[in-house]
Design a protein that fits this description.
Layout lengths: L6 E4 L4 E4 L7 E6 L10 H19 L3 E6 L6 H10 L3 H18 L15 H13 L3 E4 L2 E4 L15 H8 L15 E6 L14 E3 L1 H13 L3 E7 L3 H16 L4 E7 L2 E3 L2 E2 L10 H7 L2 H9 L7 E3 L1 H25 L14 H12 L4 H19 L8 H22 L6 H16 L3 H16 L3 H16 L2 E6 L2 E6 L3
Parallel strand pairs: 3-4, 3-9, 9-10, 11-13
Antiparallel strand pairs: 1-2, 5-6, 6-7, 7-8, 11-12, 14-15
Amino acid sequence: MGAPEIRVFNTLQQAKVPLQPLTPGKLGIYVCGPTVYSFVHIGNARTFTSFDTVVRYLRYRGFEVRYVRNYTDVDDKIIKAAAATGEDAIALAARFVREFEADAARLRLLPPDVSPKVSETIPEIVAIIEKLVARGAAYQSGGDVYFEVRKYPEYLKLSKRNLDDLIAGAGERELVGEAKRDPLDFALWKAAKPGEPSWPSPWGAGRPGWHIECSAMSAKYLGETFDLHGGGLDLIFPHHENEIAQSEAASGKTLCNSWMHGGFLDLEGAKMSKSLGNVVRLRDALEKVDAEALRYFFLSTHYRQQLAFSDKSLADAETRMEYFYETLKKVDERIAGKDFGTGPLHGDPQRFLAEFDEQMSDDFNFPGGLGALSALFTEFNLLTDPKSPVKDKNLAGRTLVALREVARKIAGALGLFELEPAAWLLARRDRQVIARGIDAKKVQEMVAARDAARAAKNPAGYAESDRIRAEARAMGVELMDSPAGTTWKIAAV
């Protein structure tokens, strides 16, 4: 029996639909990337992590994925930020591209196959606008060019809004300072203004509007029709709605087969956004919590649902990751360099992989996928427990080896467990030592003293060993016995 069919919630249809590639075995995916005028915040990071995981899973399932995520490096917000610092707008954007890539690497986001920039796609942008003007779907007004919304009958088919209600809400406010024919017409090209970046065009020097950028970049790297377009919920209107209108009016073709949108990150009861000023920068969050723990936190809720952010939620995620890594360390030590022979296994390790696929095939159900992973770790602990009902050590060992390979496959599809367990656990302990102000040198002295006391193998030595353990516990440190001697970690609060 093969893997289940992948179904995706298509925003356009408001229903789960089969993922049917335009070319069998291949998928083209475009995700709207950051507008690079500031550091990326964790709300953005959640969206990018969601689509990073989608791409990972699709590749795990055997698809050849061409993943495109752009940089908007020409935009009103960038120009405003550059004016405030006295920096060249293109230079400022380039600087924040580098900062984003550094943060993305820490979060272990896969580099897209193509990361196009608006500033490098101007000829393609101009070509689409020329086509829209020639077809009567756009018009020039002074040095500006606008898309004429009423020339595209299917406008608002993605967001399901009402055109008349939008116009009533816009009124004259939308016409101030602009020579549009209609309040909802939107800019494709903006005439140059002093101090702003500009490029030559048939309508005079200027720069592109926001929406036309993604239409040009997706068409250049994926074709006029591609498989899947993603972004945050806040992009449905107007950005993605306008993308559809201008792309389809220019090409006469469907822009993409499926639209996926990620939910918001909630911070203290409000959607996180730069405009509201209630943001937590990704790099600041990564100073407090391990990158994989943050990734686990993002995946703990379905990508379409709102996710509540708090310091406690991050702490809980890191505690969960500690459990996973401690288990992996225990399993790896149990099976390293051992030959358990051939023969039957305890149960069917592949059942966890089947459950993982069942969950992830259902609109990329990340929490369900994590549930399959958690069940696998329960089995790990059952087989490594001294009181395990599986008494045959070779049977248990063979099963652990098979389960470990399943765990690698699932982890790779989720972007988790990319470090050696011992290294991750040591880094975790070091962070906790600093955060709690624990004297690590003193703890090491206590560990040495306890090992010496236990080595005496007499009642006085055992009593001293117990006293040292109690003293450590009072400091917030847990001492643990192992074949190699006493080890330690920070005790759970």
